[in-house]
Design brief:
Chain lengths: 597, 175
């Protein structure tokens, strides 16, 4: 029995706004809120205290509440919910909101606001939250009338989850949550005009399948849209790939939609993508983009991107089509429906003979762009790629459902390259915004959503310090997350760019005065471990995985390691830097590229 | 793909709610699109819809992006590129203050007459002319007034509507 049903007999007894809010959240199926209290949201916290249907997870910083909710959403397919107070509570949440906007994560962020009468008076802890978050959200609301509260919150959920998902903020002045408010019945959505009518365009599907039947060098380029569309979309992608025999490459956000170990999978494409994925993207004659958005980290130099291919772009957000790269066929709609239509139109057509194309791919694959040499002498320095590969192998041996979050930087790219995923929704990373400090709170959110799963934050020592306070949240809720720090004493990606583009002048990128991560873990009631040499690595990973509580593993890795392959900014996909010995100018590393991010 | 810069007049029907205009303006500034002029007013009190007319410029790809991005805004009901959809009427209103005397004053009044600009305020030393027309016509008028004591200009920006019986907001039947 839902709370709404309980009330049905008694009518809407006088509820205050905060109680109405919680009733609507309950109706929307909300089980967990990530938040932090403060003056403007005290009525909501009071209402939370008096009920037991919705659980509240107290974070240590509002940014972390948003990242935790993002990971909760990404790993469950539900809408993540955040509750923060006015002023600094809301402004602290902004980074997380933009992160969710860039990566299309469905969130509802409830923020307190000073009472309606004080708005505009520079009141204590007042900020123009709807003004500040307007470009940081898919949409936002300021509730000014108690009568609109219930419907506004319902609509916020609808906006967050419909179409291309994204974060929605609802700003709640304190008089609205304190005062009486009606629990209005759900009204007919005014958003129906926004929903995509019908399936994908039949002609576009026919033209695509026509191109698929005649292509000699086809390629699927899949993105986070497949994950957002739900596990069924991943399943349909797998079926389409089997039926056609086409190779598949994925963006960072799309990892897991297609099984990484599958021979048809070429790995991630883009700046730190695999040789075979990037060369295939450059050389294909048919590129089918599915739920991906031609991000600059994917395309490199746009005018040299996949220069000779017929391009199809399927996306739920029409504004993404023809935004960066002009395409030949546009398919608007949910990628799940598009995949279904493509499968149906393909029918029982036998897979075409693509052996020449696959032979070409095999020769690129043999370059082994992700390769490295680990000295296996027990006293040898650990190479970060080796640490991730061992983590993958040993985690897989546990047989447990595994979720991996990352921070941002080299370790993130190495994780994308060396950790393998065979299911969607298991990979939690900050793609579009590149938010350092994402991974630790994301691990919190994933572990809250999946209490029995193995949740690992693959971290760098610099990034993880940005939200290290969340070790407190981990301790409070006894979340057994594993924080696997690849500690190279540098902001590694900054250091790498400084080496390649700024004459090895390592300006401010050395991680000076680091804490002792083992002691730090202990101070937060977690278990600390350290591996300084290859000989200790497997043992530390095994003990970390076997431990039933939170662990911080400080993995001391080679300081000067760079992440390869690398397409320097402004270069084309066939101009990858494969390793440190390569002539950087020949690889398209130009003064012009230096201007780019 | 042509990279020529084109001008476009885009009409947007948007719910008349707090912050709606800021969403549109913020979209243009945030994504680096041009606004050459912008007008906004409530046009449908019953449905609470405002109509925004934006004069913008960009490559064809940018113009398409502007329209697609506008359509993503939740309060936006419809977006119409009048430049693309066919002939349209675009009009701007200007109030032009001219302060002068003697021959210059007479000449200002004579030119105003030929432009069908109406003096809406007259003193011994000044006129305020009201003028409607295309932005080009208003530009021309202002240039002619410059040597004749041009003192102050207020312009509304262009308001535009398609020619012929078809209507842009399809949800409503043409009357």
């Amino acid at each position: 029995m839902t709370a709404a049903e309980r009330d049905a007999g008694t009518g809407n007894e006088a509820l205050n706004g905060a109680e109405v809010l919680l009733r609507v959240l309950d109706e929307e199926g909300v089980e967990v809120i990530f938040g932090y209290p403060g003056g403007a949201v005290l009525p909501i916290y009071d209402a939370l205290f008096k009920q037991d249907r919705i659980r509240h997870v107290l974070v240590r910083h509002e940014q972390a509440a948003v990242h935790a909710a993002e990971a909760y959403a990404r790993s469950t397919g539900k809408v993540g919910v955040v509750l923060v107070t006015s002023g600094p509570g809301a402004t602290n949440a902004v980074t997380g909101l933009v992160d969710a906007l860039m990566d299309s994560i469905p969130l509802v962020c409830l923020s307190g606001q000073v009472p309606t009468k004080l708005i505009g008076n520079d009141a204590f802890q007042e900020a123009d939250t709807t003004g500040i978050t307007r470009p940081a959200t898919k949409h936002n609301y300021l509730v000014r009338e108690p009568g609109t509260l219930a419907q506004t919150v319902r609509e916020a959920f609808e906006v967050a989850r419909s179409g291309r998902p994204g974060p929605v903020l609802v700003d709640l002045p304190k008089d609205i949550t304190v005062g009486k408010a009606p629990l209005t019945k759900p009204a007919l959505s005014r958003l129906q005009r926004l929903s995509h009518q019908g399936g994908p365009d039949a002609e576009a599907i026919a033209r695509t399948v026509e191109a698929m039947k005649t292509a000699k060098r086809p390629l699927f380029y899949t993105g986070g849209g497949i994950i957002n569309s739900g596990p069924e979309a991943s399943e349909l992608l797998r079926r389409l790939a089997r039926k056609t025999g086409f190779p598949v490459t994925s963006t960072l956000m799309g990892l897991g939609a297609f099984p990484s170990p599958d021979p048809q999978f070429l790995g991630m494409l883009g700046m730190h993508g695999s040789v075979e994925a990037n060369m295939a993207t450059h050389g294909c004659d048919l590129l089918i983009a599915l739920g991906s958005r031609f991000d600059d980290r994917v395309t490199g130099r746009v005018d040299a991107f996949s220069p000779n291919s017929f391009k199809v772009h399927a996306d739920i957000d029409p504004s993404q089509i023809d935004k960066i790269v002009p395409v030949d066929v546009r398919i608007e709609g949910d990628v799940r429906d598009t995949l279904e239509a493509l499968l149906e139109a393909w029918g029982d057509t036998p897979a075409p003979d693509l052996s020449t194309w696959w032979n070409q791919i095999a020769s690129w694959r043999s370059v082994d762009g992700f390769g490295f040499t680990q000295d296996m002498d027990p006293s040898a320095i650990i190479r970060p790629q080796h640490a991730i590969r061992r983590l993958y192998v040993l985690a897989k041996e546990t047989g447990r459902d595994t979720f991996v979050s990352t921070e941002v930087g080299q370790h993130q790219m190495w994780a994308a390259q060396h950790f393998q995923f065979d299911k969607p929704n298991r990979w939690l990373t900050s793609g579009g915004l590149g938010t350092m400090g994402y991974g630790l709170p994301a691990a919190v959110g994933a572990q809250v959503a999946h209490p029995d799963a193995l949740v690992i934050d693959i971290a760098g020592e610099a990034s993880t310090l940005m939200n290290i306070q969340e070790l407190g949240t981990i301790a409070q809720y006894r979340l057994p997350v594993k924080i696997f720090i690849l500690n190279n004493h540098y902001m590694g990606m900054v250091r790498q760019w400084q080496e390649l583009l700024h004459g090895s002048r390592y300006s401010q990128s050395y991680s000076e005065a680091l804490p002792d991560f083992v002691k730090l873990a202990e101070a937060f009631h977690a278990t600390g471990m350290r591996a300084t040499h290859v000989g200790e690595l497997d043992d530390v990973i095994r003990r970390m995985l076997a431990h039933d509580g939170p662990v911080v593993a400080d993995i001391c890795v080679a300081e000067g390691e760079n992440c390869y392959p690398m397409i320097p900014s402004g270069a084309a996909h066939n101009q990858m830097l494969l390793g440190p010995d390569q002539d950087s100018e020949a690889a398209g590393l130009t003064e012009e590229g230096k201007m780019l991010v | 793909m042509t990279e020529t810069i084109q001008h476009s007049v885009i009409s947007v029907l948007i719910e008349d709610e707090s912050g709606a205009l800021a969403r549109v303006v913020g979209l243009f500034s945030g994504r680096g699109y041009n606004i050459e002029s912008l007008t906004v007013a409530l046009v449908d009190a019953e449905q609470k819809l405002s109509r925004i007319t934006v004069l913008t410029s960009g490559t064809p790809m940018v113009i398409r992006q502007i329209k697609a991005q506008l359509k993503r805004l939740i309060p936006v009901h419809d977006v119409c590129d009048l430049t693309e959809e066919g002939p349209y009427v675009g009009r701007e209103l200007a109030l032009v203050k001219v302060v002068s005397s003697g021959d210059r004053r007479t000449e200002a009044l004579r030119i105003a007459d030929s432009f069908r600009a109406r003096p809406v305020d007259t003193t011994a030393m000044s006129f305020v002319f009201e003028l409607t027309g295309s932005p080009e016509k208003i530009d021309a008028f202002i240039e002619l007034m410059r040597p004749l004591g041009l003192a102050e200009v207020s312009r509304t920006g262009i308001a535009a509507i398609g020619r012929g019986p078809s209507v842009f907001h399809l949800k409503k039947e043409p009357v």
